[in-house]
Amino acid sequence: MTALYLEDMFVGRRFSGGPVTVDRDAIKAFAREYDPQHFHLNEAAADASFFRGLAASGWHTAAMSMRMMVESDLRPDGGVIGAGIEELQWPRAVRPGDVLRIELEVLEITPSRSKPQQGIVRVAMNTFNQADEPVMHAVGRLVMFRRPAG
Prior knowledge:
Blueprint: E1 14-21, H1 24-34, H2 38-41, H3 43-47, H4 58-70, E2 81-89, E3 99-111, E4 118-128, E5 134-145
Antiparallel strand pairs: 1-3, 2-5, 3-4, 4-5
């Protein structure tokens, strides 16, 4: 796939990625390493929790979404370089066996005044499960480079 540049972006442009199937063992492995709470680690304890069953950490959902974004049809020259997250919401739990996909939409493009070779692209990332229910919403800023002269 051809690398994309700031000049290739326009407000409303859409990209998509996935799918990723969520694995029970991966939920627990991620939780052991980064978010060791009972509802991510222990199925019996999770059944009695707020989640009423084993649920992936929101940070695990974000990591899977990031991977789908990197592997999506949004392929900036130089890679996906984050400049920050403005919004991050997890409206629904992610469960073992869920099949996730992402949709990305360009919201705003701001050429840099101090670094004329680049700009910032605000992107909405929405992650959905197999029932098309939203499981994550994020708005982030990506650094994108201008097309080289010549």
